[in-house]
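Render this sequence as a predicted structure.
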Amino acid sequence: MSGGDNLDFEIRPNPAPVSLAERDALLVNPGFGRVFTDHMVTVRYAEGKGWYDARVEARAPISIDPASAVLHYAQEIFEGLKAYKMADGGVAMFRPDANAARFAQSAQRMAMPALPQAAFLQSLREIIRIDRDWIPQSEEGSLYLRPFAYASEVFLGVRPSLEYLYLVIASPVGAYFSGGVKPVSVWVSPDYTRAAPGGTGAAKCGGNYAAGLSAQAEAIENGCDQVVYLDAVQRKYIDELGGMNVFFVLDDGSLATPPLSGTILPGITRDSVIQLAYRAGRQVVERPVSMDEWREGAASGRIREAFACGTAAVITPIGTVKSPDFEFTVADGGSGEVTMGLRKELVDIQRGRAADPFGWVHRVF
């Protein structure tokens, strides 16, 4: 099989899939990222050969050599997106072309070969088709898709790998928040930063998240749900949360969000929020927002709402902000009308309950 933009996927159905009764039991309350479907996608890459050997096969453990490059030099990238049951019974993905583009950008930053967009999208369609019965029927249920790639060459040496393995696994998920969406509390990390200019902050690579685990643990120790990072240079401006972008709603109805300066992940939900706000006639300004501005704005009422956004939780209101030196509550306490209105509009588009004026929804069948 040649390594072109379009790959022919060999379909090898799982000879021992999970029984119908067991699958139904698992789908009652799948949680998030704990239950997995019967199949996975694999595609291999070799220098001089390109991408080849594309398969859909039974989900199974991966055999990996102890000297595989990823274990020593962390060449690895991933994406996350969802497939939804639509109002008419079909199934669709939300903005997978944007995920494909970001996957390629992450690959470039991590000195990895970019998987062609056509092959990326086809890999998602293939696993959805074969595992469509794993999509939960619940109101908030969806099939979470995790495409990822890593350096698989067996060698010890600091250089880009010559071999890679691309995979897609799928996980049925329910509501991210049990009991409904609730305002989260955030901890302003005094010691840790997420990324610095020139680093990998804009790439979706595992190392960014591993580096944030200590900060997240610190947040939990201080009674908060999430950590919020300040910029690495001045330690003054808001960057983003541990795994989500952040927005501020001002008293005139406009939105402000930190700019994409190379230290912030270019979130697809972030971009969707900006486009929805523009369409509703709201002004959106991408600019630095300092912690002092947030504190003073919350006290004066100038900043009425704050929310975080990302694929897993969609849009989440922020209620309380804490640090070793202060604690304050966002003016509306996290129950913002603008925040929840944007969330409902976005979810309704994703699930086919509202018109899709942007062409975001990609039907699989």
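Summary. The first helix runs from residue 20 to 28. The two ends are 27 Å apart (CA to CA).
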